[in-house]
Amino acid sequence: MVFGLGKKNSKGPGRADGTQDDANTVAPAEDRHLSVSDPTDVAYDRAVHGPFDADEISTRDGYLDLGALLITPYDGLQLRLEVEERTQRVIAVTLDLAGSSLQLQAFAAPRSEGLWPEIREQIGLSVGSQSGSIEELDGMFGPELLAKLPAVAADGSRGLRVARFIGVDGPRWFLRGVLGGDAALDRDAAAPLETLFRAVVVVRGDSPLPPRDLLALRLPKDAIADGTGHVPAEQPAEGQGGEPYRRGPEITQIG
Length: 255
Prior knowledge:
Elements: E1 3-8, H1 46-49, E2 52-53, E3 64-65, E4 69-71, E5 78-84, E6 89-97, E7 100-108, H2 116-129, E8 133-139, E9 142-152, E10 158-170, E11 173-181, H3 187-199, E12 201-202, E13 230-231, E14 251-253
Parallel strand pairs: 1-5, 2-12
Antiparallel strand pairs: 1-13, 3-4, 4-12, 5-6, 6-7, 7-11, 8-9, 9-10, 10-11, 10-14
């Protein structure tokens, strides 16, 4: 596997309302832990279809351990970690696959109620304040949001930056995903990343935390930073090239 670090000069850690951008990393690996059942229920059952709580799995072997999140390796997957420059904390992990991306963040939540309904409302307000638009959709995981924000491409043309927000409330945690690239608008392109989202395991821990506090992420235990912003690792698999995939703004041209 190959890992890289993306540093972000931000005022605070990523927020559950999705107002932070994503991160930097890489990892070709074999397909594991993806035998979760298809979500065919009328109402999505998280405990059956995922994402899962750490108490709901029998072993952590084979997962990529990022602290609060256990990620399933997948062939062709590139994994990027975003580091807050001020604190040097890892605040998000982004999975890049075939031109699409999925940013993941996990937050502490109350025992008695979920965060997703309130966070959806806050995302809508945030996007609206930036002259963007929000569409609420009915997706695999229940209600989700499609956000479109005005943007300017590198050539000066105007367009829209598009992101699809998904969220799942678990036992004392909330997992938020932001789909970008082709997956934001194309359900077929999103399917592999949705499967990876369902296979995520959240490690909440027993420590009392205020609702919305970001659950701590970290580099894998066997990764040692070399001081250059990258982590020494194996060479990328053949056909991947020597550079991690780095996602730029997803802009849909509008003229």
